[in-house]
Amino acid sequence: MHGHIRPVxxxxxxxxxxxxxxxxxxxxxxxAIRELFERQQQGMELKTALDALVARVQEHTRTEEGFLLKNxxxxxxxxxxxxxxxxxxxxxxxxxxxxxxFVMAPDVAELLMEYFVAHILTVDGSYSNLAQxxxxxx
Length: 138
Ligand SMILES: [Fe+2]
Ligand SMILES: [Fe+2]
Hints:
Blueprint: H1 20-41, H2 47-70, H3 76-97, H4 108-133
Helix pairs in contact: 1-2, 1-4, 2-3
Bound molecules: fe (ii) ion (2 copies).
């Protein structure tokens, strides 16, 4: 899908939402996806990396949704639905990794990264923009 170009598993400048705790959680999720990618490249077991990724996304979802509700950020229902869908996909992947003979498709980590970056830039970006106009609090 991406040929021989090595994917970028980094939180770039333009992906910052401006709230340190949330940016740090985004960074830790990106690191977990990178870990998954690297372990797959090296032919290592993936269950532990998937457990860590699920845990970080669960924690981040709780924190971010609490923040959205507290600050009455518009579009909560849609945002929540997207978190739920993403998390369900990750949990399904993690559960499949527990089964005998599990093989993860080679582009999964890259697709997760693309999906997560797109979420940060568009969906999370909605509250990032709000932050510039009014002071939101955690
Ligand atoms: Fe989000
Ligand atoms: Fe987020």
